[in-house]
Amino acid sequence: MILSRKATSLLVLQAALFLGCSIPTADAFSLLAPQQSKLRSDKVILSRPTTLHAAARASGGRKSGQDDKISSSDAWEPTPCKPEEARLTVIQITDVYTLEHLASVKTLVEETRAKSDGSKVICMITGDFLSPYLLSSVDRGQGMMNALNAIPLDYITWGNHEADIPHKTTCKHVRSFVGKWLNSNMLDHDAMDAQEEFDIVEVCSPDGSNIRKVGLVAVLSNDPKLYEHFKGGAFGGATIDDPWETLTRLQKKLMGPDSEYKCDTIIPLQHLYVPDDHITCKTFDFPVILSGHDHHRVDEVVDGTRLLKPGMDAVYATVLEMIWPDKEAESNMPQVKARFVKTDDWMPDPVLYEQCERAYDVLEPLKKTELAKVPPVFEPLSSTNARGSVCTMGLYICSLLRSSLNLSRNLDQRVDTVLLMGGNIRGGQDYEVGSYFSLEGLEAEIKSDEVISVVDMPGWLLAEGISATHSGDPIPGWMQYDNGIFEDFTQSPPVLTQVAGKPIDHDKIYRVATKISDLTNGQSPPWTEYYKAHPELLPPKGNYVNIQAELMSYFAGNLWQRIWDSLGEKLDEDCDAEMYEKKKMEDPECESVCNAELRLETLDADGDGIISVEEIQDALSDLAGISVDPRELTLAEFVHEFADATGSGEVTVEDLEIFCRELGERYEREKIRQFLSNRSSAANNAGDSTNATVVAK
């Protein structure tokens, strides 16, 4: 349904705001600089932090290659309302992958409320805050939720990356939020009982003569490409309805002639890309849209609707004012004023600042923690000359990523290879033979904000693209790859011969995981030419995966596997000793390859039938053999969550029985795979013998 266009007067006013044309003083923002917070104390250092957490605190989200629509942000100062003026002030942040600026956001919100006497002030985040970044890979978004509750935000809406963390954990976050979690187009979500489909904000003038109602509606992108890699579907299999059908339905419900709510206007809170935001602008008569998803700032007027996106990480916040000057003003056409303000212009709240600092402490015990033994095939492990050769660290990280990505994907979504530019392997270190790979090493080698995605690539282009970077002087784009790729270095430049351990098929379409921006940055001319000519083949930005977060999840799962394997070895030893002492040839309890009850008994130190987080912590030290900090249980909680296969919140014998069954299934699959592999090898050998005989004749 195409609704009527906006009034020309609104278009002119908003276009003037966007283009920077002069407008009446009464309609302009005050340009006074913000005052420093009264919370400042000489006893607390509140300058921008430059602590040891800087690398971990860096954003884990994608970075836009587009320029901002605006080049600077005017200073702004909140002001009291006039007696007859109804004013709604909205402070918005979006796509936040770091806690760094949230203490300043708290001060911004508090000062705005204190100085905007008579104005209704609300604050919100419009999606993407639980993932992807290193901290959330460990604490599953708990530090972020603690900070958002401490501001406190009034509203949260969904982003696509909230699907990245375990669904049951996300549901817990929904129920723990102190404000309102808005969700208009995913109504069968498992935690919908703790969410609102919409909300009505009543705005009243100081003298009580001018009362307005504003509807808040939150829609999330339903683009299937954003969610195709989730087994069982994103958000626990919830249905994401069409955003525009949802907006049409709720516009009628909140503003229609028969509406019980009688809203004056609606503010769509969207998590959509700009082209989709434009559809909303052109289809509906909403005066303003607050959106996220794109990570650059956007301030533009499209068909009379002002579209605002403050960019990522709360570096900037949108400050929107919707004003009805008096009770005679047209109900659905408020004055719209907006600016992006730099949150660092407000001193950070000292209590929240310290809380956010402490949130990153959970990473400290991991810095010297063994994440993985380095397989001998990658030794000696080295990241030196990554811009002039394929180094073993490049091989190792790409191989880890391939394993991790394929572990969490359906068969038809698995990747054939992983490629990273040498400039992304940045440690420049030689590691001792026999050393282990730690979180400290991961942070040294890969920046915390590096992201990859999967792109389809013809075999011929894959070969030409890699070969083009492997000749001449060292360059940042010297391509690193996983251990399934082989090149013939007897030729110059080298020729790619194998992908995924098999001879390359130049006509096959391979699924390649890599940094998407590297495909068009000119380092590999064949790729740049091809993908600039075919940008439609590049994946959407919302489908990117943070490298550090992906590997941290992979390593954490491996820790549970190490506990499991060590437990099996311990039980085997106990059974052998028991049989020797009792001179038994067999013991019924020792017959099973995987006895869940015995494993529970071994891990359950207090005998209550449940494996606690503390008992997992002991197992990490005693069975997995890693160094753990007894004061910090975050890693143990993560492993405990992984071990909770039933999702009950407890680890019981039922969970261990599931792992036992999976172990048996994997064993049987491996036997079948080995049988087929041996049969294939035998057939190939027979063929080789036949060919040899023919040649001899």
TrEMBL record:
Molecular function terms from GO: calcium ion binding; hydrolase activity
Any one biological process term the GO annotation gives: nucleotide catabolic process
Report keywords, A-Z.
Signal
Q: Which Pfam families match?
A: Metallophos (PF00149)
Quick one: signal sequence residues?
Answer: 1-28
The EF-hand domain extends over 601-626
Signal as UniProt keyword: yes
Q: Does the keyword Signal apply?
A: yes
Q: Where is the region Disordered?
A: 55-81
Q: What is this protein called?
A: Calcineurin-like phosphoesterase
Native source species:
Nitzschia inconspicua
Q: What is the lineage of its organism?
A: Eukaryota, Sar, Stramenopiles, Ochrophyta, Bacillariophyta
